[in-house]
Amino acid sequence: MSAWVLVIVFVVAGAVGYRVIRGVPPMLHTPLMSGMNALSGVTVLGALVATAAALTSGSKALGGLAIILATTNVAGGFLVTHKMLRMFKRK
Amino acid sequence: MNSPRTAVKGNLLGSVCLLAAIVLTLTRHGLITRGVLWASMALGAGLGAGLAAKAQMVHMPQLVALFNGLGGGASAAVGLIVLLQASVRVDVFGRLGSGLALTVGGATLSGSLVAAGKLAQRLPQNPIRLRGHTALTVACLTGSLVLLVLALFPGLGAGAAVAFLMLLAALSFGILLAIRVGGADMPITISLLNSLSGLAASVAGFALRNPLLVAVGAIVGAAGLILTQTMCRAMNRSLLTVLAGSTTQAQQMPLDRARPETPATPAAPGQGLSLAFILETAQKVVIVPGYGMALAQAQHQVKALFEALEDNGKEVTFAIHPVAGRMPGHMHVLLAEVDFPYDRLCEIDDVNPEFPETDLVIVVGANDVVNPAAATAEGTPIYGMPVLDVGSAKHVVVCNLDDKPGFAGVPNPLYKQQGVLCLWGDAKQTLEDLMTHLGGH
Q1: Which of B6, B323, B209, B230 is nearest to A18 (CA)?
Q2: Shortest CA distance from A43: residue in chain B
């Protein structure tokens, strides 16, 4: 994929995200933040690919660490978000 | 995510999509059978689930900060891996992306960990300013930039050394940035770090030419930016002054000037009567909860008080300051924990004009957000911050632990004001006392 396409993807996603998220009420800001936080663990995809392509054992170990960190972020983030949102829903 | 009802689905949808993306990525790169990858993921998921399961709502801010740091750290590691292999057909664009991922991710990691430490009260709350702090920060930043340029041309020298130096510079920058931020500005810092972790994921996507990473990272970055803006507006601060640690000026200000000369008297016997009277006659009641309520775990008492007041035919609303608690929206989550009707929660702009017509304000564990000194105490962290104008109500009852200054470190003159009744002590207990007064009539 060409570099410029990626730049365009970045700009468009940022702008769309900005518009959509502006509408979230303050009440949900904490779940929003922790949900977004979980999403930032999407970097696990990068970690998987990079680890698989890693050549030296040092890089591989680093990759394994990256995967662990990222999945902790993803799993933990989504679970606490869910926990919080469930409380809102009970009402 | 626009309403509490749909947000649960949104969150589940997000997690399912991410899982699908993982599987898809593994399949596309023919890695589905690599056991090590799965084992790493399982370990990480287990860790995350464990942490999440144990989490209490009060501890949410530091947990989010911690997770945030881990995400940033993962992005940094991805950047590092790619950079270390820079000699292997990675073009300038890829190197730029991975260098940025390393820098931004590293700063996010160390900054978030410092923030989490401060929130968990493992590190001192007040801003820490090293000698030549600004110079050091600038040095780290310029160092990162120079190294980034160096990394673009792997022919120049040792790629690995440059990469590790970059990591070092980024980590130091994160620490320098977060350590200087005072406790009251923490919500802003977390929001910013949240944004940075998204950005780190996004630039890691540039490094790996992965459009999904780029897009999702950009959205997270935008979300963090919005929250940062919201928080800054709520505190009437610009992002730059927060990061520049202008709060440190507060330490130079003689705090004693505004401190009450004598400690406020604990509830005298005679006050109980008037308290019952106030409670009985008040028609319009506003409750202002703060982080202290969470610390005292008094949410259930607050809810009971709310119900008791409602049963007595009073009109009760809740005033939530945008920075009440330790992160955006923290108070709402705490109140939701006790199953609170969230349509009763009001924002500062709606509730402030109502205070002059309010008979009784009950402050529960809130200090900085009701501190009238925000309008006058120049040079303090809360100067210029819009506060809840509870002083203009007819009566105020404060159920705080003590009369010590709040997180921002500014003494609160409200406690000495006429018509303000202070019940010091554990909010659980004082609230129950309040209810006995109410129940007596």
Answers
A1: B230
A2: B201
CA distance B359 to B285: 6
- Shortest Cα–Cα distance, B130 to chain A (Å): 30
Question: What confidence tens digit (pLDDT) does each residue in B160-207 have?
Answer: 778 888 888 889 888 888 887 766 677 788 888 989 999 999 998 888
CA distance B164 to B12: 38
**B425: region left, alpha or beta (phi > 0 left; psi from -120 to 50 alpha):** left
Which residue in A17, A23, A26 is closest to B329 by CB distance?
A26
Residue A33 lies in a domain: yes
User: Model ipTM?
Assistant: 0.89
pTM of the model: 0.80
**Is-catalytic flag, B359?**
no
Tell me, yes or no, whether A62 lies in a domain. yes
A68: in domain: yes
- Interface probe for A, chosen from B64, B229, B231, B340 (most Cβ of A below 10 Å), is B64
Domain B256-439: CATH superfamily, name plus number: TPP-binding domain (3.40.50.1220)
Q: How far is A90 from chain B (nearest CA, A)?
A: 7
Cross-chain residue pair B339–A91, CB shorter than 8 Å:
yes
Question: pLDDT tens digit string along B94-141?
Answer: 888 888 999 999 999 999 998 888 888 777 767 777 777 778 888 888
